[in-house]
Amino acid sequence: MAHTLDSPDAGTPVRNFQINFGPQHPAAHGVLRLVLELNGEVVERVDPHIGLLHRGTEKLIEAKTYLQAVPYFDRLDYCAPM
Fold first, then answer.
1. How do residues 1-39 score in pLDDT, each as one tens digit?
2. Is residue 27 in some structural domain?
3. pLDDT, tens digit, for every residue of 34-47?
4. Could you report how far apart the first and last alpha carbons of the chain are, in Å?
5. Are both 69 and 43 inside the same structural domain?
6. What percent of the chain has pLDDT over 70?
7. CA-to-CA distance for 23 and 17, rounded, in angstroms?
8. Residue from 29, 7, 3, 39 nearest 81 by CA
9. What is the helix (H) or strand (E) element at residue 32, kind and residue range?
């Protein structure tokens, strides 16, 4: 059986949708999260949030030498290893 959606009245205001597009799980790796404002299927505005991999690296390496800290730097952005 086919379902149809009633079209909204001409006087009814249509709101834009705001959705999060980014890491699928808080523990998942990801360096970019986008907050999108949509008008139907058209993206009206994007608010990027960059750098979700911060894990207190400064605190982890403050008592280490440079050579001991290199592996931490490599893991800061898994998309761009050294």
1. 555 556 656 666 767 888 888 766 555 556 678 888 998
2. yes
3. 888 998 888 999 99
4. 57
5. no
6. 57
7. 19
8. 29
9. strand 32-39
Instruction: Determine the Cα–Cα distance for residues 21 and 11; give it in Å rounded to an integer.
Output: 31
Considering its fold, how many domains does the chain have in total?
2
Alpha-carbon span 14 to 7, nearest angstrom: 11
Can you list the alpha helix ranges (DSSP code H) found in 1-82?
57-61, 66-76
Q: Say whether both 31 and 44 belong to one domain.
A: yes
> pLDDT at position 37, please?
92
**Containing domain of residue 30, as a range?**
16-51
Question: pLDDT per residue over 46-74, tens digit each?
Answer: 998 876 555 678 888 899 998 998 887 77
> 32 to each of 12, 43, 50, 78, how far by Cα in Å?
35, 17, 5, 12
Same domain, 21 and 45: yes
Within a domain: 20:
yes
